[in-house]
Amino acid sequence: MPIYRFIIHGRMADDSGGFYTTRWCRAPDEGAAAQRAMKIVCNEWEGPPIHALQIDEGRRISFWEIWNAPNRGCTFYSD
After folding, report:
1. Residue 1 CA: distances (Å) to CA of 18, 38, 72
2. DSSP assignment string, the chain
3. Does the pLDDT of residue 65 top 80, yes or no?
4. Cβ(8)–Cβ(20) under 8 Å?
């Protein structure tokens, strides 16, 4: 099954800022992988409420590329 990596952007509900995170997952196609990656982020989220979550970039990767992108963590910013 192909592996896809996504850069996901989230905005906080109070519009005070947001975050970027990278997630990869296996799925039969990019659309299914995108839905799965978004679900992973939502299930792991323990911070303030999220107003918006969107995929900024996504692409198919090889098995060896998963070592270059950890499947955890976020980079936060404030407005």
Report:
1. 32, 19, 21
2. --EEEEEEEEEETTSSEEEEEEEEEE-SSHHHHHHHHHHHHHHH--SSPEEEEEEEEEEEE-GGGGGGS-S---EEEE-
3. yes
4. yes
CA distance 59 to 72: 18
Contact 4, 12 (CB under 8 A): no
Instruction: Name 8's bridge partners.
Output: 21, 55
Alpha-carbon distance of 22 to 43, in angstroms, equals 15
pLDDT in tens, 40-63: 999 999 888 988 999 999 999 998
The model's pLDDT over 14-41, given as tens digits with 9 standing for 90+, comes to 988 999 999 999 999 999 999 999 999 9
pTM value is 0.87
